[in-house]
Design a protein that fits this description.
With about 375 residues, this protein is mainly alpha-helical. It contains 18 helices and 6 strands.
Length: about 375
């Protein structure tokens, strides 16, 4: 269709494999011509961040197993051509929730900015641990950070670290070594890896998120999540629940429950990637292992969340997250803007960071 042809032309014509440079041309064409993004012309630094974020979202959504490239055929078969065609008639860029929403970019970048205390565009392990009010266990934070810094040190050109193959095979050697390396805080977790992380953390129902977390939890890189790995991550959850006065499910019982949930055909080996992708609730396994807040919310089956899901069954977890976070950020910005107007600080109105970096807000 027209959207597919425009996408192909903007992203390299007949090129068989598209990388970040091709996708950047496509996104920049959208930025330059869509009226909903015209305001970005006044802030080139944020225009670049927007382009980078959208490119990462495209690769995250379309590529297989975390590959930093996508094939021309995969692009044509994806939702991207329809999204491009819709932009021709839709002036509100935020309606493009799959790829181009400025509000979604704003949420991602503000999340990173809030964690990055020294604003060097690198997150330390301590920075990352503060994500979502410390809801993630320290063991998963260390693992995520180790993989991100190992890949960043090994190849700064790649968008994301390589993941397992579609059948649940073993990862690359760099991936296996990251589970035991002394990562320290020398490298830091960059923005690109954070985008991949936050997309995966806030919606574990999509294939890319399941692949991301499977690779992260599979400590020995054998292509299976075994009882050992469940024990390793869940033990910390158990300790945290006890500290909160919660009545926890013991490790042996949680292993049985997870295997009953996923029903792997080779339980003696463990749970493979394909088993999780086949299971409608496969992503919940990861919340149980390392996200205490989401695990407890799922256990309690919050009535508000149930009503929200039933009222809007086609709205993804990612979209719900962005809506909540954008509303929070908008409410926080209102007093700051009022103060800026009162003091005549025009550069701070709208939360826009000046070129000198004098304001703390990213926008």
């Amino acid at each position: 269709d027209g959207g597919a042809r425009r996408g192909e032309r903007a992203a390299g014509g007949g090129t068989a494999v598209l990388d970040a440079s091709h996708l950047r041309l496509l996104v920049r064409a959208v930025v330059n011509h869509h009226p909903g993004l015209a305001f970005l012309a006044a802030t080139p630094e944020f225009q670049e961040r927007y382009v980078e974020t959208v490119v990462l979202r495209i690769v995250y959504t379309i590529s297989r197993c975390g590959a930093p490239t996508i094939t021309r055929g995969a692009l044509v078969r994806s939702a991207l051509p329809a999204a491009l065609a819709a932009l021709d008639v839709e002036e509100d860029i935020n309606q493009s929730v799959g790829f181009f929403s400025y509000e979604h970019f704003y949420v991602i970048y503000c999340k990173f900015w809030e964690l990055d205390d020294d604003h060097d565009m690198l997150l330390s392990k301590d920075d990352l641990s503060r994500y979502a009010d410390f809801s993630l266990s320290s063991r998963i934070v260390c693992r995520v950070y180790a993989l991100a810094t190992a890949e960043r040190a090994g190849s700064s050109a790649a968008l994301v670290a390589p993941a397992h193959d579609a059948a649940g095979g073993a990862p690359a050697a760099a991936d296996r070594s990251a589970s035991t390396r002394d990562d320290g805080d020398d490298a830091g977790m960059g923005y690109a890896h954070f985008v991949w992380f936050v997309l995966s953390e806030e919606d574990k129902s999509c294939r890319a998120a399941v692949e991301y977390w499977f690779r992260t939890v599979d400590l020995d890189g054998d292509g299976y999540i075994s009882g050992y790995e469940i024990d390793f991550f869940y033990t910390e959850q158990l300790h945290r629940m006890r500290c909160m006065g919660q009545e926890p499910v013991e490790v042996a019982d949680i292993i049985c429950q997870l295997f009953d949930l996923v029903k792997p055909p080779e339980p003696q080996r463990g749970i493979a990637l394909r088993d999780l992708l086949r299971c409608a609730l496969g992503g919940k396994l990861f919340d149980i292992l390392f996200n205490l807040n989401k695990f407890l919310a799922w256990e309690s089956k919050d009535p508000h969340s149930i009503r929200e899901e039933r009222a809007q069954p086609r709205v993804t977890e990612w979209e719900r997250f962005c809506k909540r976070e954008y509303m929070r950020l908008a409410l926080e910005d209102e007093p700051a803007e009022a103060d800026a107007m009162a003091w005549g600080d025009v550069g701070a109105v709208g939360g826009v960071l000046s070129a000198s970096g004098s304001h703390e807000s990213p926008f």
